[in-house]
Specification:
Elements lengths: L5 H13 L2 H8 L3 H15 L4 E3 L4 E3 L1 H25 L7 E7 L1 H18 L3 E7 L6 H4 L3 E5 L8 E8 L1 E5 L1 H7 L15 E2 L7 E5 L7 E5 L5 E2 L2 H9 L5 E4 H10 L3 E2 L10 E7 L7 H14 L3 H6 L16 H10 L7 E3 L3
Parallel strand pairs: 3-4, 3-5, 8-11
Antiparallel strand pairs: 1-2, 5-14, 6-14, 7-12, 7-13, 9-10, 10-15
Helix pairs in contact: 1-2, 1-3, 1-4, 2-3
């Protein structure tokens, strides 16, 4: 049996990534019929169908999925070998696959991509946006942005900065229901929560007398979501108090759409934002270019620098219990204090 050439593998992989022969042909400077013939020739050589073709899309067969994953790794190895030989004397170029969390992609990386594109015109970026940890080898990812500490692995990691958590609310909410002065005041307020991560309903506060120097308070509220972006929107609409990463709410804090509260009590819980790469890929010129670009722009956590500038803070409203109408409003906004619970961090 004859052996498939790297060129055939590259055409097949690009057809899968582009979702069709016509889209792949445009990027490969080929005709759609030429792309189709190359894929058909590959299938004939292997004796299996790799793609199910319809008029609107291409779908991988089970055999095609396995072959596509192997083809990606083979092409990446070839590209890495070529990069090793040429990195000192060539401009960064080629397809760069980047994976990033929703918050980082939306609020930080995407707005900077035009500058990256102008600086490196020969790099093509494929950005995958997901909060799901990607299998870098299986999915052919060159560089992944991950928040949190990483398990031991063979991956190469480079710390970019730390992400911190912030407690904040919209001025309209604080004007209507008052500004909490102590952590326990949150038990009388509507706190927004991620229902798919119950542990994050326990908000951390500095406490020198507690083990580890902080304690936790379980908060409650009428509204919850499984996505931080939705919670940010809820908070900006005045629906409650939220505790999210400063990466997510940094722009809203800078504009005044949200204001930080309980800053003297809140435990920031810093966690690292890291660039993670498969072994060897961190030496590729295109990967090095993106890594250096991210460190240049994000090492100083610009969203936090903007937040810590002197800003007008929302004034606390009078306690809303002076009238029956105010009491009813607070009852609608906040859960019963009897449901709240506190626990000390172990």
């Amino acid at each position: 049996m004859s052996i498939s050439t790297p060129a055939d593998l590259a055409v097949f992989a690009r057809a899968v990534e582009a979702g069709g022969f016509s889209a792949a042909a445009r990027t490969l400077s080929l005709t759609p019929s030429a792309v189709s013939k190359i894929v058909t020739r590959l299938e004939d050589r292997l004796g299996v169908r790799l793609l199910n073709r319809t008029t609107r899309s291409l779908d991988l067969t089970p055999e095609g999925q396995a072959f596509f994953a192997r083809a990606q790794r083979i092409l990446a190895d070839i590209e890495e070998a070529e990069g090793e030989l040429t990195r000192t004397r060539s401009a960064p170029r080629g397809l760069l696959r980047v994976q990033a969390s929703v918050a980082f992609a939306l609020h930080q990386l995407t707005p900077k991509l035009p500058e990256f594109a102008a600086r490196y015109p020969e790099i093509e970026v494929l950005l995958s946006v997901s909060d799901r940890p990607a299998d870098l080898l299986e999915e052919g990812i060159d560089l992944s942005l991950r928040i949190g500490r990483l398990p031991d692995s063979s991956m190469v990691a480079r710390r970019i900065c730390d992400i911190e958590r912030v407690i904040c609310a919209a001025p309209s909410y604080l004007q209507r229901y008052g500004t909490p002065r102590r952590p326990e005041d949150l038990l009388q307020h509507n706190c927004l929560r991620l229902f798919n991560q119950p542990a994050l309903a326990h908000w951390s506060f500095n406490d020198p007398g507690a083990p580890g120097g902080f304690r936790t308070l379980e908060v409650f509220g009428r509204f919850s979501a499984n996505n931080a972006e939705s919670m940010r929107q809820m908070a900006m609409l005045g629906m409650g108090i939220v505790r999210l990463s400063d990466l997510t709410v940094g722009e809203a804090l800078q504009s005044g759409a949200l204001v930080p509260i309980l800053t003297e009590y809140n435990h920031d819980e810093p966690v690292p934002l890291q660039a993670v790469m498969p072994p060897g890929k961190h030496r590729l010129p295109k990967v090095t270019a993106m890594l250096d670009f991210m460190i240049e722009h994000f090492a100083g956590a610009p969203w936090r620098a903007a937040r810590k500038k002197p800003a007008r803070r929302a004034r606390a409203a009078p306690a809303p219990s002076a009238t029956p109408r105010a009491k009813a409003a607070r009852a609608n906004a906040a859960p019963s204090p009897r449901r709240a619970a506190t626990r000390r961090a172990r």
